[in-house]
Amino acid sequence: MADFSRVLAGPYCTMLLADMGATVIKVESPGGDDTRQWTPPERDGVSTYYLAINRNKHSITLDMTDPADLQTAYDIVDQADVFVENFKPGSLAKFGLDSEAVAERWPGIVHASITGFGSAGGADMPGYDLLAQAMSGMMSITGSQDGPPQRAGVAMFDVMTGMHASIGILGALRERDISGQGQHLEVNLLSSALSGLVNQTSGYAAAGNVPTRLGNDHPSVYPYGPFATADRDLIIGCGNDNQFAKLVQHLGMPELADDERFRTNSQRNAHREELRALLEEALSTATADEWFERFRAAKIASAPILTIGEGVEFADEIGLNPIVEAGGPDDSVPTIKHPVDYSRTPARYDKAPPALGADRDAVLAWLKSRQAQGEHANVAY
After folding, report:
1. Distance CA 46, CA 40 (A)
2. Please, what is the angle between helix 360-372 and helix 67-78, to 10°?
3. For the segment 255-272, what is each residue's pLDDT rounded down to a tens digit?
């Protein structure tokens, strides 16, 4: 896989595929991927942002304005089944790596282009996640009801776009097994955002509904959010009437399940504040941790609100083993494990995120060996 992407969406996509066994050559400019400089935090002088999304890759630096380096770029793509890039639309044409040129020279390759707002009317817009959070409407529904719009605490649409790109690549490779032909995929942050907003965007598309901010409340389900206890908030979720009946039974108020104000989800939605007051009065008799243990034993959906560190530690406590070492004994780096557990082909963590250009000699030697054997992946002759 020829990975000409940088920052988050593209590198996250290619790391997921590298974890699954793809050979990924990360092509960087001499200045390197921007995230190498995004600190704090850092580990041994290296940005943890960069470390999060670049394991299992081989780094080579190329200045594509230099003819020799541009030829090396072509040589890398020659050997690739997949070419991933997130350059500004149109900017690769001068290097002969635009979609039309790639399709002509490498007809069997799967070429994935990742942009912020597509290659048509939004081609001039920078591909920053925050812009997609703003323009998708996500920020308009995030935050307290009487407060300002709020961004998410992570670049969620970059991550989502990376996942969509990896799904698209795998689908295109499977189709190539049938047709023998590659194709060009376009993935953008705004389309991923609108898809990922699911019920909110569907409500507008199908019913003309424009949702507003509800703080931590769900627009369609209640109770579903944080509720005050004796010491701090606890998340409680009731997705149906039976779950609500079970909740109020364990709170010592079984009669609420038959109360006409709360008997159905629509009725609970219509009487939210009345119900909140009753639930929080009962919850005030114990701490969040005490209620969580009781509800967990009763299989009632609940969760304390944890810090990132506590969340990782909880995942470890329940056997999810969230931290894995990427690399060997001399260069291992703690990273968050691949999100899928495979029964036969587990994700690999063979290679630590590479230093800038660290694999240049190895990549060039590999290319020379392949060329000497006359091996090419998708070149048209």
Report:
1. 9
2. 60
3. 999 999 999 999 999 999
Q: Which residues are catalytic?
A: 158
Residue 44 · residue 333 · CB < 8 Å: no
pLDDT tens digits, one per residue of 96-140: 999 999 999 999 999 999 999 999 999 999 999 999 999 999 999
- The one-letter code for the residue type at 117 is F
First to last CA, the chain: 21
CATH number at residue 256: 3.30.1540.10
The pTM for the full model equals 0.92
Q: Within 13 Å, how many C-alpha atoms sit on residue 259's CB side? A: 18
Closest listed residue to residue 111, CA positions, set 199, 172, 26, 32: 172
If you average pLDDT over residues 264-286, what whole number do you get? 97
Contacts 24+ apart (CB under 8 A), 158-161: 158/7, 158/8, 158/9, 158/12, 158/129, 158/189, 159/8, 159/9, 159/12, 160/192, 160/193, 160/195, 160/196, 161/9, 161/13, 161/114, 161/187, 161/188, 161/189, 161/192
- Asked if residue 379 has pLDDT above 50, the reply is no
Count of beta carbons in the 10 Å neighbourhood of residue 141: 17
CA dist., res. 345 & res. 361, Å (int): 29
How far is 113 from 153, CA to CA, in rounded Å?
26
Q: Same domain for 239 and 111?
A: no
Q: Which residues pair with 59 in a beta bridge?
A: 26
Q: Is 362 domain-assigned?
A: yes
What is the extent of the structural domain holding 123? 2-196+320-372
Which helix (H) or strand (E) segment holds residue 171: the answer is helix 156-179
CA distance 249 to 71: 71
Q: For 267-309, list the strands marked E by DSSP.
A: 302-304
Regarding whether 248 and 335 lie in a shared domain, the answer is no
- Order of strands across the sheet that contains 233-237: 224-228, 233-237, 302-304
Q: State how far the Cα of 310 lies from the Cα of 298, in Å rounded to an integer.
A: 23
